Description:
Number of helices: 12
Helix content: 10-25%
Strand content: 15-25%
Number of strands: 30
Structural class: alpha+beta
Amino acid sequence: MTAGLAMAGPTAQAAGPATAGVGTDTGTAGTDAGSRERAFAAASAEYGVPRTVLEAVSYAQTRWDFNPGHSTSGGYGPMHLVDADLGSRDEAKGLGEAQGASAAHGSTPVADTLGRAAGLTGLDEKALRTDELANIRGGAALLTATQRRLGLPSGAGTDPGQWYAAVADASGSAQEDVAAAFADDTYSVIASGASRHTVDGKDVSLLPSTTTPDRAQIGRLGLVKKATNPAVDCPPGLECDWVPAPYQDLGGGDYGNHDLANRPASPTITNIVIHNTEASYATTLKLVTDPTYVSWQYSLRSSDGLIAQHLEPKDVGWHAGNWYVNSHSIGLEHEGFAATGAAWFSEPMYRSSARLVRYLATKYDIPLDMQHVFGHDQIPGVTPANVAGMHWDPGPYWNWEHYFQLLGAPLSSQEAEGAKDLVRILPGFETNVQPLTFCTTGVADSCGEQGTNFVYLHTAPSESAPLVNDIGLRPGGAPSSTRVSDIGARAQAGLTFAVAERQGDWTAIWFNGVKGWFLNPASAPTAIPVAGSYVVPKAGLAKAPVYGRAYPEAAAYPAGIPVQPLAPLQYTFAAGQRYAVGDLTIPTNYYRAVTYSLDTPNDHVDVVGQDRYYQISLGHRFAYVRAADVDVVPAQ
Length: 636
């Protein structure tokens, strides 16, 4: 499980990525693109639920998707019916042991909505898992049962605003603010409308409509108020447990599993790192509470978006494989397997994560862009020897475009018509099916077809040209591959790159020291022009060094604190190349924390330098350059 977890502290690094997948049953939803629309209409009429309510609840839960057979998060079908009675045989899905682990830490167990739907409809549980009409009927039956239990009017023609409590109950949460947040999300879908071609090929749309939700109904559900815990740093509308990571002296000078600090005063908090766990939620909680393991700030459960917080914001987790990034970041681990993709990355988890990140970004003044909210796979190695061992999660199936929509910062919002020098990769997600292999260990063609978050880069403007090489991953110069874990030739959605050349429908960008070509036809662009700046080596320099961390100059270190070496990475940023600027205000510091005792002289000290660095978009991973080595040029 090394794509996400297993990151160590200041010096230890990650092992290579795992390629474990989870098998699924074959669904019976069929190939008719219009069948899901008809299923919503039929279930609405049969169970007396306004169709707008039924479709909006489904959209808020799954965006109308029906992953083949089932979701490994435990939620089945477009109504996300959760089978919470899976037992230990399905612990890999994060539900069997997760309930026990949750109970041990005071968490809400997963609601068994699939079992309830079977009782209400008389339908077989297998049908509820695999048949789209049965699944949607089950979701409609649950909504109507709640509406009638609360003594509220039902019927397909009733005012959708009178279903607020039933919609809130569909969240599965016993916490009032969480249930209300889900209901508000659902009613925002009704107000704005939505339209999608789902991952399993169905066309569903919901026209915008005006209704006034009766929010006072929430009191009828008898839900609990959020308990206050000063250690928990979460906004209203999220269910967050305190599951502390232990700070413990292990003897012999060793300790775990994080470091104490005084953030954001020192060091500052400038980034949020998105991980996936490569483990079930239950296993994740076991690992983060092990003093001999490592730590991160938050874990999110796939089935319902439940959050466990492990560290106070002031302290430093060991999650990024780069001590400089650790000291400035907050790490979010999302339950799931990078090679399995959408089956784990559920809509409840996306929405919880986005709500949490919006809150943290506001509190700590972190810009909502991919230079500051980024994946584990974008973090550079700290030395040339570390580059090949860095992680690749959350992987090619994390939907960055949708995630930033939920953050309220669409990746398309900075399009600058007519800009020439910089492009942002935006291929779309659902329809951007790129070839990937080895999602199951040892099986070359195991990944199947699903949306991806990147475009491949070639050595020439042709699909038949080899993929570009990443010398940090393949020092011998061999081309990158289509292995799910191989990021060497992937230009990821949301990242901005400097244009090197254009030929017809093809665009070349500077990428890890070489030109990488991707198909970008004007009729169906996979990138948009954006404004910004780029850097070039200063006049007279044959090349500018690039670094994996922004450590201070030697003169900044006080007596008793060893100067930290700053080794340039193996990538060549030569004269004639240019790279997009991600951030011009990078903090220059080294947080010294190598002992357990806070009383140790010259320890738990933030060494701040005068040297300046810029973050640049070097390749799939970003890098840092010294301001003294480059010039910043406004892009045209």
